[in-house]
Design a protein that fits this description.
mainly alpha; 77% helix; Carboxymuconolactone decarboxylase family protein
């Protein structure tokens, strides 16, 4: 198996685990975080920052999401989903650019 294939298999396994593995956060919340899709306002503020501007995440973002009823375990899982989702989009864009370069 070529190295790229092993990397893609490992990546798919990671994505599958964060989206469908056991956890404190619901699979629906994990999928929304992974896709940086709309969710409850305090949570979406945190997830959006994790995905797009992680250096701007503050303790206040976590406090607001926690005050909205999310546990620390749920927030940890959702932050991981958001980060993996954003990195997946970047990874897939990179693979597409490489494929386009090889075809052209």
């Amino acid at each position: 198996m070529p190295a790229e294939d092993k990397k893609q298999v490992a990546h798919r396994a990671l994505v599958d685990r964060v989206l469908t593995g056991q956890g404190a956060a619901s699979p629906e919340d994990r999928a929304r975080a992974f896709g940086n899709a709309d969710g409850p306002a305090p949570l979406q503020a945190l997830i959006g920052k994790v995905a797009m501007t992680p250096s701007q995440v503050t303790d206040a973002d976590f406090a607001a999401a926690k005050a909205a009823g999310f546990s620390e375990d749920q927030l940890f899982e959702l932050v991981v989903c958001a980060a993996v989702g954003q990195s997946t989009r970047q990874y897939e864009a990179g693979l597409a650019a490489l494929a386009e370069g090889e075809a052209g």
